[in-house]
Design goal:
It contains 7 helices and 8 strands, in the order ααβαβαβααβββαββ. The protein is α/β, with parallel strands linked by helices. Helix 3 crosses helix 7. It starts with a helix and ends with a strand. It catalyses: [thioredoxin]-disulfide + sulfite + AMP + 2 H(+) = adenosine 5'-phosphosulfate + [thioredoxin]-dithiol.
């Protein structure tokens, strides 16, 4: 695995599709893309599937997703006829938590909520990423203040791999225009004030003027609203997607 500067130099001057093709060729069999079926991820899925780029696509099936999310998932499978691999929580971990604390323990404390996030998302993510060298994500620079110091290519110390954000410099309008121009199926909750769509019990619509992250875990202190999917451990930052 080359260092970030070497990879960045190799990608320099290439367009988004060619960057994905280059990485898929160089890291064949060890490159993976995580989708939660939001705007950004649907755009990247289209880039990968419509260009037949050999990148494995996966999702975290938490068991608490919105019906609209399942619809987009199924339509995406029908449209592209390509696999999207689902990673589920470990059965015993989930059973033990629910049996001990009930199905909605995450409302009771930050600790309980983080435990639920770990079981339903973090642990399955670790399994999905294991053995891979490149993790493709839908992170964009403008999504939160935490991301201002990030780059489209970065080292993930916690997962010991390189992350590449192919639409890092896209604005939300860029994403929406790309989706419209290419007639890409997307989650209609976005049209109802949901900029970020996660598990149904933990996501609500954002009101005009509210922060992008206000729709996640709205009952918690703003400073604690993360689950650890995208952690920049060296800088003490955690970015949620």
């Amino acid at each position: 695995m080359g260092n970030l500067a070497d990879i960045q130099a190799e990608l320099s001057g290439l367009n988004t599709v060619d960057k994905l093709k280059y990485l898929a060729d160089k890291y064949a069999g060890t490159i993976i893309f995580s989708t939660s079926f939001g705007w950004e991820d649907q755009a990247i899925t289209h880039l990968i599937f419509s260009n037949n780029i050999p990148i494995k696509v996966f999702t975290l099936e938490t068991g608490r997703l919105f019906p609209e999310t399942y619809y987009v998932w199924n339509r995406t499978l029908e449209i592209y006829n390509k696999p999207i691999h689902a990673y589920y929580p470990q059965n015993e971990l989930l059973q033990d938590m629910v049996n001990a604390k009930g199905p909605n323990s995450f409302y009771e404390s930050v600790e309980n909520r983080k435990e639920c996030c770990y079981i339903r998302k973090i642990e399955p993510l670790k399994r999905a990423l294991k053995g891979n060298e490149i993790w493709i994500t839908g992170i964009r620079a403008e999504q939160s203040a935490n991301r201002e110091d990030m780059h489209d290519l970065e080292w993930d110390e916690g997962n010991q791999l390189t992350k590449f954000h192919p639409i890092f410099d896209w604005t939300l309008d860029d994403v929406k225009s790309y989706i419209k121009e290419n007639n890409i199926v997307y989650n209609t909750l976005h049209d109802k004030g949901f900029p970020s769509i996660g598990c149904a019990p933990c996501t609500r619509a954002v009101q005009p003027g509210e922060d992008f992250r206000a729709g996640r875990w709205w009952w918690e202190d703003q400073s604690k609203k993360e689950c650890g999917l995208h952690a920049t451990e060296a800088e003490g930052k955690v970015v949620e997607s």
